């Protein structure tokens, strides 16, 4: 008996010794990893995306794929994180990354921030005024992590489903006192020679004498980019050429398939405009050829717009499309695990999205995603009420899966049509009965349909604007453990600069 006990003690000590050695080795390995500097950085930003948007998209993904085969696992095998595990097969890629943290999003003088503020904070590590792009409170230009990476010799890229001159990409590649100065932002992209520029907004690069242009001068920036040696793809007419293009070392590219924003994912015509994942993949093809590595910022810009509209289906589909871009970055990470850093963050939350909403004060624990499956178009771009009520009810059935309305829903919709017929599409939906918020660029009818769809799914919205919520951040790869815990959004840029060993401001 004594010998058995003694043997057990010896075995226990041996096991403990081995465990301690393993822990020490792990600590050394972790410390070694922390000391390394990433060669390839993906900074993916879901505009307007907080935990509620990402969680809802994941629930919907699970709902849609309950009986489908896990194609990701078949393609990538067991190395694709936990995809072999049944319980993880429908999780968003962003939720499978190793490290998690959170960021506060306040501006310099505001609790609820604007996109220019949050993007500037993430890009430069400095708080700014509401509409300022990469300038401090004294209007001094701030250097972004992207520009600092370029100065270090790395290749750089900006990708967005919004206009490429919109607030988020602009904060990484330009410095202007107002985010509305998109013509000036476009010029600064040319001056800063960012290697890969892909997104909407051709209207800010066309000369002023073009009917589609928003420029007030006659500078043709596409020609100026071409003169600098860029491969230029001006419109969706050149999408096939963009897709067929094989990047060569040293190439630079600009591609703007749309005059304004790229279409919502739910409305996107695959033959005319690539997905955000496809845009990211082409960027990798180009930028990876630089021996010094690359920094690429990828924005799911239209998550924000859909949430402003309180359009639940469109919000989900754009979030899922954004997550496909995360998958694309992760596939590259698998090929370069010791050199790659992936950062996935929102800049702020939009819409006050709630994952349960009851009629009136009814007490309930319920959410129903089935009505969302029937939605085939966004309410902003995929549908428009023109005064033909019979056509509206046809569209309601075909585009939104609503064949029958309750008495309350029909009353609200008829009131919205009455208001829009009388005052036009810019009328304020509050004049119906103050039932819900309305984004200024959509009509009372569009807003009403959006909220009927949301309420049928028991999804709630508190606002048509931004909110002050804490935003999650997920990271993976070299240096990823640095982005954990409760942070300010300015910390993200500072940590990234430290990993790159560059100075910001």
Automatic annotation (TrEMBL):
GO terms for molecular function: alkaline phosphatase activity; metal ion binding. Zn(2+) binds at residues 47, 304, 308, 347-348, 466. Gene3D superfamilies: Alkaline phosphatase, crown domain, Alkaline Phosphatase, subunit A. Residues 1-30 form the signal peptide. Mg(2+) binds at residues 47, 166, 168, 299. Binds 2 Zn(2+) ions. Transmembrane segments: none annotated. Belongs to the alkaline phosphatase family. This is Alkaline phosphatase.
